[in-house]
């Protein structure tokens, strides 16, 4: 939109401009803008107008710029006559301008025009030779007049200096020599240009050289293209990938090509120019249709006729898409031959033979083409085609003969006379074709004068109207098509974009297998397990992800699934062999809190009231006798839930009670003491709504159930678990480890059947765990509250975050979540911090404050500071005075030394000239202390300190800093130790 708006503004400014010179500048700008917008017709008109104005002003420099642009535009469009005409005008205008820069560029651009015409129009190696000739002329010109080009600062700013221009020409010549199969010359020019690019760090030229090297047929084009992709900067990455895909298609690796194009479509399309984006879309659509049709040929319900049609469509698409490339034509020929193999009738075989012959002609395999044309002619006669149709095939046969290298002129001219007599005069197109064929034959044999006669006659025939064929017997087949041809490209591209996203996901899944995806050590399996996307869980399982992988907090995927209430995910994980009883523990690593642990998925399912999930876990051997570190079993959590859900739906309460009774019965079978009720009744509060079928956790605060328990160890594991285990905004986690005792769980058993309580669980294999009545169990009826680790309802622990900072406020070590009794004070926090630092052998003094910077007395209760509570422990800044007193002792410290160090701590000035420091031993103490602190010394005063009498080892105690030694020597004239 901005470009279009600027275009309109330029047109208005041109109309208003009275100054012809300004008008010329505006018209040139308009031409450049239209060209960049792809409006080539308007660009041509603008440049022609600019050329007219410049010629009137005798401004040869601007005239040469306009002619250059016109030559390039016509060459890009394949208009040979106009392109070469304007290239010649460019050279003349450049000469008239007297600009050495323009003259050199005119030679360079002429070579580029010939190269472009070879690609867009002629496909003739003579154009490549001509382009190389002009390129070498431009290099010679630089060698002669490069110093004058370099003297023109404006020209250097626009087109580069002589060395850069020479390197660009060497890149052009390298590519031309490669296409002409001049290997040594191609390598010579390429190496020279590449050496310049590396020497000057010219990334753009290096990229262009790597792009040109793809055409080195004696090297692996795929490796060179991959090298280009690896080097390409971000803005060129998309184009490089398109080039790689093209090379892969040439080699027949269509799957890799499609993967590359889909990656480019997904990630880089927006960075492509409009033409390149259009080319990318076309190639994506082409390969989509190719694979769809190829897959169709392999279907059991695809009959012979449809299979033949698919092969024909594939071959036609290769010819249409890349018919100028030999490699693409060879692919087309392959599928035309498959089409021929599926042909049965004369009509089908004729069609296949014609297609094969025409493709062989394009491949310049004229002998084979002639054989196929003659075969097609035989089928055509069997079909009883019209005389005109037969004449058309005869003309094709004659053209193939004319292109054969071994064809004799006398024999050929005899065939020409015979065929010319058979072709009706009204069929002017056929007449023109045979005259052109003879003319080209004579040209290749060096008989240009005689050839011109036939070529002129061919032009005359083309000027005449051709007879319209109206044979009723015309039985030519209609163009083959299928439903893919009827689909809009936009719809196919949309499907390909979705396919690109899917494949990208698959690659990411494969690449990320069991890798940590966030700062909490979670894998894709953890993330998927707590989501509602069971299909992704199954996909990850199929990809080989570890279903028992633990994150930094120790959580396994099944723990995540149970926590989120995702029953389908739980079942999928159990079926894949997930361990049913991964338990939490205290002190999994150094940063974990030492309180709490031992939670199994069954305990959590019972605590949250997920009856169906609990049944699934029991069916797969979940233990009913395992206890957490507080002595609670899964039944205890379930009984606790029942107590707090007394006013719930009766049917739901019955389900909970039935499950509790069944689990208690299983405990009895293991000789495990059964409590028969909740271990401790919670305070009265609003009951939470928990349904057995719900998929999300309830939004309820708990003080003594699992949620309360987890608040003690919250924040130690994956922070992504925040807010998932309940509706409260908090960090929570658990610490898991593998069970030391493996219970024989049936990992392969299906989880599809519902568990019916209690009958179908009576024979469930729960392992070999057994307990006697004398087992070491702290029963709630026997143990006093003071002996329990679990806090009472009236006295929940104070959860506190300890943050550790160094002297400058930076992070000393990771923060830690700890719990304190309700009676704890700041003195308790200070003792805990001292203990934590001692564990890391940090004995430095520290200060305590709250997160907002408030300092609190040591006798202030923590309970009075509110929740959440964060205490910051910052190390005190190390001073020389502190080091000195710690080394000497407060009673033995010298006040003069202390005064010297105090001054140094404040100002950075080390004053050894104080009267009290005239003894070497005191100076030695000062210097050793300063060295221990590794502090910088701004100023060193040595007058009267007796440093010249100080032993050498004293000097060695100083930090080895050149400025300090220079100062010491200047003041005391001491030798360097």
Automatic annotation (TrEMBL):
Residue spans of biased composition, Acidic residues class: 468-483
Gene3D superfamilies referenced in this protein's UniProt entry, alphabetically: Ankyrin repeat-containing domain (1.25.40.20), Tetratricopeptide repeat domain (1.25.40.10)
Placement of ANK repeats on the sequence: 520-552, 553-585, 597-629
Region (Disordered) residue spans: 460-487, 505-526, 673-697, 717-737
Compartments it resides in: Nucleus
Keywords: ANK repeat, Leucine-rich repeat, Nucleus, Repeat
Compositional bias of kind Basic and acidic residues: 505-525, 728-737
GO process annotations (BP): double-strand break repair via homologous recombination; replication fork processing
One Pfam family cited in the UniProt record for this chain: TPR_12
Cytoplasm listed as a keyword: no
PANTHER family the record matches: TONSOKU-LIKE PROTEIN
Name the UniProt record assigns to this protein: Tonsoku-like protein
Native source organism of the sequence: Nippostrongylus brasiliensis (Rat hookworm)
Higher taxonomy: Eukaryota, Metazoa, Ecdysozoa, Nematoda, Chromadorea
């Amino acid at each position: 939109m901005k470009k279009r708006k600027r275009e309109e503004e330029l047109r208005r400014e041109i109309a208003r401009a009275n100054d012809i010179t300004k008008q010329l500048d505006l018209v040139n700008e308009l031409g450049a803008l239209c060209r960049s917008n792809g409006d080539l017709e308007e660009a041509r008109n603008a440049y022609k107008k600019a050329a007219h104005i410049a010629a009137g002003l005798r401004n040869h420099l601007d005239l040469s710029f306009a002619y250059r642009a016109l030559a390039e535009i016509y060459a890009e469009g394949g208009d040979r006559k106009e392109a070469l005409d304007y290239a010649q005008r460019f050279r003349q205008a450049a000469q008239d301008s007297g600009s050495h820069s323009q003259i050199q560029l005119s030679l360079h651009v002429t070579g580029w025009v010939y190269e472009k015409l070879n690609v867009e129009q002629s496909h003739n190696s003579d154009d490549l030779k001509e382009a190389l000739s002009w390129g070498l002329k431009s290099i010679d010109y630089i060698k002669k007049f490069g110093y004058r080009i370099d003297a023109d600062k404006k020209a250097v700013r626009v087109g580069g200096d002589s060395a850069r221009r020479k390197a660009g020409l060497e890149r052009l010549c390298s590519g031309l020599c490669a296409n002409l199969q001049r290997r040594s010359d191609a390598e010579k020019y390429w190496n020279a240009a590449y050496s310049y690019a590396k020497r000057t760090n010219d990334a753009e030229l290096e990229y262009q050289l790597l792009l040109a090297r793809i055409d080195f047929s004696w090297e692996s084009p795929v490796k060179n293209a991959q090298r280009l992709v690896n080097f390409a900067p971000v803005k060129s990455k998309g184009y490089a990938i398109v080039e790689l895909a093209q090379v892969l298609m040439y080699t027949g690796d269509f799957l890799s090509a499609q993967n590359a194009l889909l990656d480019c479509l997904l990630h880089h399309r927006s960075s492509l120019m409009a033409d390149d984006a259009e080319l990318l879309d076309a190639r994506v659509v082409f390969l989509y249709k190719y694979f769809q049709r190829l897959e169709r040929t392999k279907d059991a319900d695809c009959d012979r006729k449809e299979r033949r049609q698919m092969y024909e469509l594939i071959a036609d698409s290769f010819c249409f898409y890349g018919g100028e490339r030999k490699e693409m034509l060879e692919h087309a020929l392959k599928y035309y031959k498959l089409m021929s193999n599926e042909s049965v009738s004369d009509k089908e075989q004729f069609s296949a033979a014609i297609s094969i012959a025409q493709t062989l002609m394009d491949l310049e395999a004229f002998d084979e083409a002639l054989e196929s044309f003659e075969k097609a002619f035989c089928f055509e006669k069997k079909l009883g085609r019209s005389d005109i149709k037969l004449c058309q095939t005869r003309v094709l046969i004659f053209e193939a003969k004319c292109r054969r290298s071994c064809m004799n002129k006398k024999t050929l001219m005899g065939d020409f006379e015979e065929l010319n007599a058979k072709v009706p005069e009204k069929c002017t197109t056929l007449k023109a074709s045979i005259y052109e064929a003879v003319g080209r034959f004579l040209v290749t044999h060096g008989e240009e004068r005689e050839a011109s006669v036939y070529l002129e006659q061919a032009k005359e025939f083309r000027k005449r109207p051709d007879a319209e064929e109206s044979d009723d017997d015309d039985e030519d087949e209609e163009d083959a098509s299928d439903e893919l041809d009827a689909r809009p490209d936009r719809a196919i591209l949309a499907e390909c974009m979705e396919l690109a996203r899917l494949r990208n996901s698959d690659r990411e899944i494969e690449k990320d297998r069991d890798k940590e995806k966030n700062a909490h050590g979670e894998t894709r399996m953890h993330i998927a397990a707590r989501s509602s996307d069971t299909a992704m869980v199954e996909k990850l399982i199929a990809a080989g992800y570890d279903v028992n992988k633990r994150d930094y907090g120790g959580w396994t995927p099944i723990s995540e699934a149970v926590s989120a209430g995702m029953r389908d995910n739980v079942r999928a994980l159990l079926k894949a062999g997930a361990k049913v009883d991964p338990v939490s523990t205290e002190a999994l690593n150094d940063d974990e809190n030492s309180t709490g642990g031992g939670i199994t998925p069954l305990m959590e399912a019972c605590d949250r009231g997920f009856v169906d999930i609990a049944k699934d876990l029991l069916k797969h051997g979940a233990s009913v006798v395992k206890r957490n570190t507080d002595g609670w079993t899964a039944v205890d959590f379930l009984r606790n839930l029942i107590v707090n859900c007394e006013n719930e739906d009766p049917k739901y309460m019955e389900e909970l009670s039935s499950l509790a009774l069944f689990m208690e019965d299983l405990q009895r079978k293991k000789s495990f003491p059964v409590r028969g009720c909740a271990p401790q009744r919670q305070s009265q509060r609003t009951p939470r709504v928990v349904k057995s079928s719900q998929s999300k956790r309830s939004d309820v605060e708990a003080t003594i159930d699992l949620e309360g328990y987890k608040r003690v160890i919250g924040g130690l594991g994956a922070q992504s678990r925040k807010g998932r285990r309940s509706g409260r905004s908090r960090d929570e986690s658990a610490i898991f480890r593998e069970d030391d005792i493996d219970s024989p769980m049936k990992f392969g058993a299906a989880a599809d059947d519902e568990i019916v309580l209690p009958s179908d669980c009576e024979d469930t294999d729960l392992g070999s765990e057994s307990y006697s009545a004398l087992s070491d169990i702290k029963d709630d009826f026997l143990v006093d509250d003071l002996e329990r680790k679990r806090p009472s309802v009236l006295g929940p622990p104070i959860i506190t975050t300890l943050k550790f900072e160094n002297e400058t406020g930076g992070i000393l070590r990771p923060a830690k979540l700890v719990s304190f009794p309700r009676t704890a004070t700041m003195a308790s926090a200070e003792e805990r911090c001292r203990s934590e630092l001692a564990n890391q052998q940090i004995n430095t003094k520290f200060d305590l404050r709250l997160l907002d910077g408030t300092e609190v007395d040591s006798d202030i209760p923590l309970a009075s500071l509110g929740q959440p509570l964060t205490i910051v422990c910052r190390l005190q800044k190390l001073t020389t005075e502190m080091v000195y007193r710690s080394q000497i002792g407060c009673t033995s410290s010298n006040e003069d030394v202390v005064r010297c160090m105090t001054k140094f701590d404040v100002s950075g000035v080390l004053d050894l000239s104080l009267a009290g420091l005239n003894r070497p031993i005191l100076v030695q103490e000062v210097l050793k202390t300063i060295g221990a602190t590794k502090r910088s010394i701004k100023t060193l005063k040595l007058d009267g300190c007796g440093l010249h009498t100080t032993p050498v080892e004293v000097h060695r105690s100083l930090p080895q800093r050149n400025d300090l030694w220079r100062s010491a020597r200047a003041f005391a004239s001491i030798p360097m130790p």
